[in-house]
Write a structure and sequence with these properties.
With 242 residues, the protein is an alpha+beta fold. It folds into two domains: 159 residues, Sandwich (Jelly Rolls); 78 residues, Arc Repressor Mutant, subunit A, CATH 1.10.10.10. A hairpin with a 5-residue loop joins strand 6 and strand 7. Helix 4 packs across helix 5 and helix 6 packs across helix 9. The protein is globular and about 60 Å long. The two termini are 37 Å apart. 29% of the residues are buried.
């Protein structure tokens, strides 16, 4: 289904929401090097947005509104070709941010973004956020350190996509969706359409389908639509190690 553009709802920030927004910011890996006092200053620029499934957050080339943090749900970052063929560049999950390049480069968004599940995102509004940095240069330096850590994490992710084979990437993703101390028989929601998941894992949709079928034949899992029942957690772990 093609994502549609809708008017999202921005909610006033009462005390409960304020605390929740701060929690979302703490969980954001882009800000993991920032101290509590700095996060509280940045929080003043934040708005929570409920983004329904299959709705566009922004289009490629659109003027930057600010930096977004995924609090819940999932957001695809994608480009469309001239013939309207979609290519997913990345899927932002809870704790991820997106839109930071446009924010700091002062340009329009280099790609489009749309919710692939009912999602809640936190928007750090561009003008207020940049004004905060101008008035508090020390925050800029702290943010630079945090961005360096974030860049290192992204490089590690790229290395994982490059060095691990497709089966290892799929097994790793499935296990990452299981709760702590999960046992055989746990059911996992893949969290996104299979074609989007394939792009997220750096493979074709056909490769993903073949892998799921192979895992099922090997009694590692049972495919149930967009969910899978994991029947052998240990064997999935062995695939990741191999």
């Amino acid at each position: 289904m093609t994502a549609s553009r809708v008017s999202y709802r921005i909610y006033p920030m009462n005390e409960f929401q304020s605390k929740s927004i701060l929690s979302a910011m703490r969980s954001c890996r882009f800000f993991e090097s920032l101290d509590e006092g700095t996060l509280r200053l940045i929080r003043a620029t934040a708005k929570r947005i409920n983004q329904p499934r299959n709705t566009v957050i922004f289009h490629e080339g659109e003027a930057c509104h600010g930096l977004y943090i995924v609090e819940s749900g999932a957001v695809k970052i994608y480009k469309e070709s001239a013939d309207a063929k979609e290519h997913v560049l990345h899927v932002a999950m809870p704790g991820d941010c997106f839109g930071e390049a446009a924010l700091f480069l002062g340009r329009g968004y280099p790609a489009s973004a749309a919710a692939i599940r009912d999602s809640v995102v936190i928007l750090l509004r561009k003008d207020e956020f940049l004004q905060l940095l101008r008035e508090n240069p020390e925050i800029s330096f702290k943010l630079m350190a945090s961005m360096a850590t974030w860049s290192h994490r992204l490089v590690s992710s790229i290395e994982a996509l490059t060095l691990k084979d497709a089966g290892s990437r799929l097994a790793d993703y499935i296990l990452s969706q299981t709760p702590p101390n999960a046992s055989d028989g746990v059911t996992v929601d893949l969290g996104m359409p299979k074609q989007v998941l394939a792009s997220h894992l750096g493979m074709t949709g056909e490769t993903l389908s073949r892998l799921l079928a192979r895992f099922e034949e090997d009694n590692l899992l049972q495919v149930q639509g967009r969910k899978v029942k994991v029947t052998s957690i240990e064997e999935l772990k062995e695939i990741i190690k191999s």
